[in-house]
Amino acid sequence: MKVLTFGITKDIIGSRSLEVPSNLALTVGELRQYVISKYPKMEKLKSLAIAVNEEYATDDKRLIESDVVALIPPVSGG
Amino acid sequence: MRKKIKISSSPLNLNEVIRFIRADENGAEDYFIGTVRNATKGESVTHLFFESYEAMAIKEMEKIADRALEQFDINNIAIYHRVGELKIQEVPVIIGVGSAHRVAAFDACRFAIDTLKETVPIWKKEFLENGEVWVSAHP
Asked: Which of B30, B34, B39, B66 has the most CB atoms lying inside 10 A of its own CB?
């Protein structure tokens, strides 16, 4: 599964996207745990939301291969 | 058309926002213009960089406009956001609201900018004299 990165998550990972083995991230919550375990700096962030198909998703949301998934660190527009 | 949403890498055009909001039924127009300030927490800022997750940011800005139109007695609303590199005094955001009476326009405008700062996936990096920082990333 391809996961898009933005803002500080792009800097931490060093790439505009991250490839995650689908079997290690069956839900949004599992994906966050995977990302934090692989990149411990993520745990220091104020929050790490995950968007699925361009909508904020809750931790129990199940992921499928065709989903467009993105890491959303704390936003700071305006 | 009661709402207009835009994300742009070129300078935002306030006159375009005013032209959209101005309407026969409006007795009040309220505009919020965000500008780039030269300092943060006592440190000098040289410039800012804004990045967006554009497809999702547009959706979230549409939701804010829809909620504002529902919750406040307003006739129209525009939400514009700039991305890319911005210098001091440049304009990252413009909100425009039109209503029959001023209170609803003030309230909706404040709601829109406050909510934008909480929900819209846009990120600001500050370039300081001694380094750079993604704003609000850490507690």
From this structure: B30
